[in-house]
Amino acid sequence: MNKIKVLITDGLSSEGLALLEQSEHFEISAHKSIEKEALKKILSDFEVVVIRSATKMTKELIDCATNLKVIMRAGAGVDNVDVAHASAKKILVFNTPGVNNNAVAELTLGFLFSLLREIPRATSGMKQNLWEKKELVGHEAAGRTIGILGFGAIGSQVGRICHSLGMSVVAYSLHANELRQKPENSFVKNWAATVEDALAASDVISVHLPLVDSTKNLLGAAQFSKMKKGSYLIHTARGGIVNEEALLAALNDGTLAGAALDVFQTEPTGANHPLVQHPKVICAPHIGAATKEAQKKVGIAAANSMIAYYKNGITNNAVNAEECK
Fold first, then answer.
1. What are the b/e assignments for 238-257, b being 16+ CB within 10 Å?
2. What are the structural domain ranges in the chain?
3. Which class does domain 101-283 fall in?
4. Per-residue pLDDT tens digits for 33-81
5. Which of 2, 143, 146, 272 is 20 to 30 A away from residue 194, measured at CA?
6. What is the pLDDT of residues 234-285, one digit of tens each?
7. Please, are residues 306 and 94 in contact by the beta-carbon 8 Å criterion?
8. What does the pLDDT read at residue 207?
9. What's the pTM?
């Protein structure tokens, strides 16, 4: 039997890689990273490409992959894949939804406490031999309102945890009518009709939306103007949803007391970026899913999904299965 040639461009957990290597279906070429020009030269040799977030499967790269039949995005979002062009070429695009949820939710909570209690500043000060006890008077989460934009698996998990901390939860979702009927969401105090309504009602905003055409620059100057003076923003979704110039202005004029960012419009993001340098911003290099547990689960889920497809034709996690029929 001719084995299916699989290219892994951004690494995969050892557990996921082992599953693929043990399968009778695949011949694996695994790399931790591949530069774009090198990738263009070899893509035509492979039927399957497995990517994380570093590789961008653009129209240009897809056109170079003349034998490609499957793109496996080992992660939840597929914004680094030109899904429409892949569909036009009948290339299935798979992802692994759900396996990163806990990791991203926990980072969001870490950001929440870091902002409210100024933990990074406290740590940095002590390392500089400062004892800023009187200056570092923060806020408690209990009694405050968190507005969650996007109430899918991650957003709802963040909401449940925040509710257990004594916070009021305001949720915004395009699927609010359906979600409000579910008993597990009864802790939500208010379902905001618009993004602006959620912003106006909240002390903290946490973004958990996908990056699609309708959410690009969703939070801009007009939206920040609706926020409470001295509120906070946490963004662990996708760069491009928050307009960075508008965010910078909101930090500078005091609308926001602080922001925590795991994602940026352009990644990698340099140290000279004005938001990275801003004293009211804490940030991380897109580490939402970067836990050992999540990496293991993502690798296993990606491998099992590919095995299920090539063994039994199962396309449950293909985001464009209908378009490729």
1. bbbbbbbebbbbbbeeebbb
2. 4-99+292-312, 101-283
3. alpha beta
4. 999 999 999 999 999 999 998 999 999 999 999 999 999 999 988 989 9
5. 143
6. 999 999 999 999 999 999 999 999 999 999 999 999 999 999 999 999 999 9
7. yes
8. 98
9. 0.91
Q: Is 267 a catalytic residue?
A: yes
286 is catalytic: yes
The beta-carbon contacts of 161-165 under 8 Å, at least 24 apart in sequence, are 161/105, 161/109, 162/109, 162/112, 163/187, 165/141
* Residue 121 bears catalytic tag: no
- Identical fold for domains 4-99+292-312 and 101-283, yes or no, is yes
What pLDDT does 1 receive?
A: 64
Amino acid (1-letter code) at residue 39: L
Tell me if residue 324 falls in helix, strand or coil: coil
Catalytic: which of 21, 178, 267, 293? 267
CB 256 within 8 A of CB 280: yes
Report which of 263, 234, 248 is spatially closest to residue 111, judged by C-alpha positions.
234
Which residue out of 73, 238, 244, 323 is catalytically annotated?
A: 238
Radius of gyration of the chain (CA): 21
pLDDT the model gives residue 77:
84
The structure tokens 């939402």 sit at: 288
Query: What kind of architecture, by CATH, is found in domain 4-99+292-312?
Result: 3-Layer(aba) Sandwich (3.40)
Q: 127: burial class by Cβ within 10 Å (0-12, 13-18, 19+)?
A: exposed
At 216 the pLDDT is 96
